[in-house]
Amino acid sequence: MADVKLVVLPRIHDPRGNLTFIEGNQHIPFSIQRVYYLYGVPGGATRGGHAHKELQQLIIAASGSFDVILDDGFERRKYTLNRPNMGLYIPQLVWRELENFSSGSVCLVMASLPYSEDDYYREFQDFKNAAQPQQNKRGE
Ligand code: TYD
């Protein structure tokens, strides 16, 4: 599966609770240029359903839980995120779908680039056409 990675983030725990932090190029292999978050997602809703040409992301369940289904053009894998100090690193050219959001969950995303609609593949076949030659070049 491409270079997808589960990243354990630092957690400073004391009697007042937990603190987790993320530094660009330290805990993740990119500079953070954008942060966004999904919240108030109704039960049964699916988010995502696209891939990115250049964008790299780290996805965190800041509260609650949800599933992230990833497809690199060859293989499909499901990750359940349910810990605020666990991030899922997603490199470019990976199709993602997010589903099974628990009530009150918050999906926090660190992104390597500002928002650009031109960076999206919103059709699975367009993504697949782009992803497969890349991987064949790498001999996978
Ligand atoms: P989209 O990326 O399709 O949402 P998701 O993957 O979470 O299901 O974005 C939904 C809408 O929000 C779309 O119209 C683009 C807009 N948007 C921005 O304007 N800026 C952003 O940073 C993001 C992530 C989305």
What does this molecule look like?
By secondary structure, the protein is mainly β. The protein has one domain: Jelly Rolls (Sandwich). Helices cover 10% and strands 42% of the residues. The chain has 1 helix and 12 strands; from the N terminus they run ββββββββββββα. It has one helix at residues 124-137, and strands spanning 5-8, 12-14, 17-19, 34-39, 47-52, 57-63, 66-71, 76-81, 86-90, 95-99, 106-111, 120-121. The longest helix has 14 residues, at 124-137. It binds thymidine-5'-diphosphate. Thymidine-5'-diphosphate is lined by residues 34, 36, 38, 47-48, 115.
The rounded distance between the terminal residues' Cα atoms is 10 Å
Shape: globular
What is the annotated CATH architecture? Answer: Sandwich
Counting helices, strands and paired strands, the structural category is mainly beta
Fourth-level CATH superfamily: Jelly Rolls
Strand arrangement across the biggest beta sheet: 1-9-6-11-4
Domain unit count: 1
Give the uncertain stretches in residue-range form. Answer: none
Strand content: 35-45%
**Record field, number of beta strands:** 12
Number of helices: 1
The set of bound ligands, ions and cofactors reads: thymidine-5'-diphosphate
Main CATH class: Mainly Beta
Question: Into which percent range does the helicity of residues fall?
Answer: 10-25%
| Radius of gyration of CA atoms, rounded to a whole number | 15 Å
Largest sheet: 5 strands, antiparallel
What string gives the helices and strands in order? EEEEEEEEEEEEH
Q: If you average the pLDDT, what whole number results? A: 95
CATH fold naming: Jelly Rolls
